[in-house]
Amino acid sequence: MRRSWVLASLLPLAALAACHSRGASGPAPDAGTWSESSGITFIEDDYARARSEARAKGVPIFVDTWAPWCHTCLSLRAYVFPDARLRPVADRFVWLSIDTERESNADLVTRLGVRVLPTLFVIDATDERVRLAWPGSLTAPELVALLDDTVDGGAPRGPLAVDTAITRSSKDGRAAECVATADREAPRMPPGTALADVLRTGIECAESLPDSPERQAQLARLTDVGERVASDTSQPILADDRSDLYAYVVGAFGTLGRDADAKRFARDWSAFLEAQASRAPNPTSRAVFDAHRLQAYLALGEPERAVPMLGESEHDFPGDYNPPARLAAAYLAMKRYDEALDACRRALDRAYGPRKLRLWSLQADILVGKGDTAGARAALQEAIDFAARIPLPASYPKQLDAIRTRLSELRVAGP
Known about the structure:
By secondary structure, the chain is an alpha/beta fold. Helices cover 57% and strands 6% of the residues. The chain has a five-stranded mixed sheet, with helices on both faces. α14 (322-333) packs parallel to α16 (356-370).
């Protein structure tokens, strides 16, 4: 997944502190993560070491840029990088993992221009030229094919090339072209991650355009194809990517005014996620689905269903800020403000880096709900003060602007 805030209409902005990018969940990996199945060893947060080892071996560096809140990142870590089908490429790279929230990684994140999580890079260890920057996830076979093309000096081919072209048109602000290409290409694309990506990007672009009969028709066609693909269990895509497509389709149904379809598909979505979580081989793999399960329950108007699973994750991962942050969002939706505040404070105590801005925004939302406008202003000011002391990668400057705007509005509102 490459984009995060698909269900923004269902929550206050800050309540999505626990959500994802195209792409949010679970604990951080241990340093030096190694998978016996794939033969891949990740160096954690040490670019200099990775480059030195890669130069000594005469191989490129594979860089996984991620964050603890990014469920798609954690899906890759739980379900793709350990996959035995990656073993043929294990020795062709030095594997590096970069937590983009850590201040020590800020210079590298800025140099790489990371704006989407996850983004997978291949970097020449000699001259540091970026050979590949792939925003999003892939299945293990798709990743092997992409890496084969990269090592051979080629570009993504076939469906991945269509995916790349549509992503570029979206990034460049050519939304009408993005929608037209997705509308034309999606019905004739083969199954796989690229198809899911094209549908999600096309839906997102369509929702950004001014309303018109043509835009409505295009969005309806993309939504109907998206529903078929998400519901098709034979599609060779990661469960996280299938879930993300569910989220986009639910949001598009709402945009089209098809509220009954949105509610029906959200129920299918929640059932799919619960089945995936029940089959997860360990707590880390299960927690990958926490963020989307919360979104699905919110879409259904049933946030209380998220409380037991998030309590379980907080118990399993006591140092991770995501479970209490998501609990705070659930309790906020339930208007259980004191419990929401307690959960948010636990999250803030455990969080680090720029993600804390979203947590203070969430705290402000809770305090506004509780009727404590002065407390909400103080929380937003704390976020602004903190932001002045740290680097702000990717989309965080825009979020900081939103926090400043919100604070100004609350000052005008008075006590």
